[in-house]
Amino acid sequence: MGCGEIESINLMVHQLYESTDLLDRRIAAPGQISHRHHRSWPMPLLREASVITVLVVLTLSVGCVGMVALIHRARTQFTRGLYMLGPWRSGMLIARFTIFIIVLHGLEILLWAWFYRWKCFSAWESALYFSIANYTTVGAGDLLLPRTWRILGAVESGIGILMCGVSIAFIFAAITRLIEREARSSPELAWMRDLPDREG
Questions:
Q1: Domain that holds residue 180
Q2: How does pLDDT run across 108-139, given as a tens digit for each residue?
Q3: How far from each other are the two terminal CA atoms of the chain, in whole angstroms?
Q4: In this predicted model, what pLDDT tens digit does every residue of 71-94 receive, in sequence order?
Q5: How far is the C-alpha of 64 from the C-alpha of 48, rounded, in Å?
Q6: Are residues 157 and 171 in the same domain?
Q7: Which of 179, 191, 170, 184 is nearest to 75 (CA)?
Q8: Same domain assignment for residues 101 and 34
Q9: How many Cα atoms occupy the beta-carbon half-sphere of 92 within 13 Å?
Q10: What is the DSSP annotation of 48-98?
Q11: Within a 10 A sphere around the Cβ of 160, how many other Cβ atoms?
């Protein structure tokens, strides 16, 4: 074996050692980064929790104020007397209540979409689409929030379920009240007046 071959072998061994050392450093780097990230995780989590608290409080405030106004309006309508409304006017009354509720939910969706547009997405269309999909619990699989804000989507879905449940309960109560008043004034629906007593 000549000197040239020995030198080439030594060069190859030296390059192999350098490659191994570089690989070790690359493997260790993610662990070090993860360790540093683990030590600093409370601050991003506290920031996200603060934002969630503010958004939830604002959403509940908008929803509660809107529902109080709607209940006051419905109480006024029922106090005036709805014995002679008829099917058409009763349907129009429920339609007005439903439109008001849809507008109320739209305001709540816009509130979350505004934050998504501010911190997460570069376009209003994406922010609004993501907010609607989460509020209605449909889900947006083609869009993802940044890692530091990903809890917001789940929280918005929970708030959406709660507010939709309140709205459905109000519409159900309004329809029940209309049917009860219609039963009091209509001979055809007289059997409904005795229904609670029969069930009892």
A1: 43-199
A2: 999 999 999 998 999 999 999 999 999 999 98
A3: 108
A4: 888 887 776 655 556 677 778 888
A5: 24
A6: yes
A7: 170
A8: no
A9: 6
A10: HHHHHHHHHHHHHHHHHHHHHHHHHHHHHHHHH--TT-HHHHHHHHHHHHH
A11: 23
